[in-house]
Specification:
It contains 17 helices and 14 strands. The chain is an alpha/beta fold. The structure holds nicotinamide-adenine-dinucleotide.
Length: 435
């Protein structure tokens, strides 16, 4: 089948490549000319494990191509996937302007029947609005379905190729059959394709992200309680996770959730409620807890050094919002680094893959260390913002020798407090007694 994917970012590139991998001819489109140029020069615009090899193979086999020319990309395809960004607007509401800009271009370029598959996370009711817009743009017949994406950056290829489920919002059985056939190679292990109304599918995407964010904020609130009462959140988590009604996922306390999805989707859900004059106390609280988790972490660091902070050199391990990505968007590290820079500290950051994005974001305002231990040379403290595996079991003796002062603020609870105290570190983590 011939497919066009509009928006070639973290979702679009994985979706396009994944579909090409099963034999389809896919054209990925983006308005960002530099991004398309870089892809055409075989350079991936971001880091995602396993993606580079997959892109190269499918380009080589002439099943995958990249262009800024949307009209030619949609001229002879049956399916048009929409994968553009839907960031939070100033009010927190989802900004769907890129979706409608893409729809405008698609509508004007249509030369026959098309199925528009919206993968961008959009407020409930958007699919109907897309249909309405398209009707005003083209005489050609079309169907619009919603197919929310659940991939996680850092595991995106695997998530797309082996999804827990596919959700499809579609009211036409023939269209549903075409999409079912498209996804059949990804569902061979018996995982379901859940077909439902478009409004339910739109809502399901928000519900999933709101639930994940809720679990994280729940744990972070309990971490505060643990600190206040001398309990250890790691032990409390074990007790929770062993309960089959609860399970172990998304129960890790830390410096708060970030990224380009959870924060904006929680806020967008609260707006859905507000637009119908409904209260959303739970969603508001999830957001508030996350905000205070991040500000409390920063405050703890600033309070520890007091006025001396301006003379301190602080090392940061991990800048991406989660491991195995170089995406800094919405990450807690940005807040930590910004606060330290504002307070006049010298900041040296090591992240296994985010050098380029760090440099784009901060220029020369932070030093970037190529190696984790190099960041520690002469440091008055280490702040851990991302739980990259390589940080989990470091050489504590080597760290102690390199650092001017043995202080660690661990936003991801990577270490055992007892071990750190044996090596002479002052160690501050989340929801556990400080040493
Ligand atoms: N990133 C994730 O982990 C993830 C997971 C699931 C769902 N989503 C959702 O998927 C959507 C896309 O997210 P993303 O992370 O890929 O965003 P992104 O910012 O990485 O990529 C979006 C791309 O769309 C392009 N674009 C914008 N307007 C365009 C237009 N009119 N025509 C063509 N291209 C255009 C941009 O240049 C950009 O390259 C969002 O709604 C997001 O909430 C993201």
């Amino acid at each position: 089948m011939k497919i066009a994917v509009i928006g070639t970012g973290h979702v679009g590139l994985v979706v396009g490549t994944g579909l090409a991998e099963t034999g389809h001819y896919v054209t990925c489109v983006d308005t960002n000319g530099a991004l398309i140029e870089s892809l055409n020069a075989n350079n991936l615009p971001f880091y995602e494990p396993g993606l580079e090899e997959l892109v190269a193979r499918n380009v080589e086999e002439e099943r995958l191509r990249f262009t800024t020319d949307l009209a030619s990309a949609v001229s002879d395809v049956l399916l048009v996937f929409i994968c553009v960004g839907t960031p939070a607007s100033n009010t927190g509401e989802a900004d769907t302007s890129a979706v409608f800009a893409a729809i405008q271009s698609v509508g004007k370029a249509m030369t026959g029947y098309r199925i528009i598959v919206n993968k961008s996370t959009c407020p409930v009711g958007t699919t109907e609005a897309i249909r309405f817009t398209l009707k005003s743009l083209t005489e050609h017949p079309f169907d619009v379905v919603v197919n929310p994406e659940f991939l996680r950056q850092g595991a995106a290829v695997d998530d797309f190729m082996r999804p827990d489920r596919i959700i499809l919002g579609c009211e036409d059985v023939r269209v549903a059959e075409i999409i079912r056939e498209l996804y059949a190679p990804f569902l061979r292990t018996g995982k379901p394709l859940l077909s439902m109304s478009v409004r339910s599918a739109e809502m399901a995407k928000y519900a999933v992200n709101a639930m994940l964010a809720t679990r994280i904020s729940f744990m972070n609130e309990f971490a505060q309680l643990c600190e206040a009462y001398g309990a250890d959140i790691a032990e409390v988590r074990e007790g929770l996770a062993a309960d089959s009604r609860i399970g172990p996922s998304y129960l890790f306390p830390g410096v708060g959730y970030g990224g380009s999805c959870l924060p904006k989707d929680v806020q967008a859900c609260a707006h859905l409620a507000a637009n119908r004059d409904l209260p959303s106390p739970l969603l508001q609280a999830v957001h508030t807890v996350n905000e205070s988790q991040q500000t409390n972490f920063v405050k703890r660091i600033l309070d520890f050094y007091g006025k001396d902070i301006a003379n301190k050199r602080i090392a940061i391990w991990g800048a991406s919002f989660k491991p195995k990505t170089d995406d800094l968007r919405g990450g807690p590290a940005l807040r930590v680094i910004d606060a330290l820079l504002n307070a006049g500290a010298a900041v040296v950051v090591h992240d296994p893959v985010a050098d380029k994005t760090l440099h784009q974001h901060y220029g020369d305002r932070v030093s970037i260390a190529q190696k984790s231990y190099a960041a520690l040379e002469g440091a008055d403290g280490l702040v851990i913002c991302t739980e990259w595996n390589e940080f989990r079991r470091p050489d504590y003796e080597r760290m102690a020798k390199l650092m001017r002062d043995r202080v660690i603020f661990d936003g991801r609870n990577l270490y055992t407090t007892k071990v750190l105290s044996q090596h002479g570190f002052r160690y501050f983590s989340i929801g556990r007694p400080a040493v």
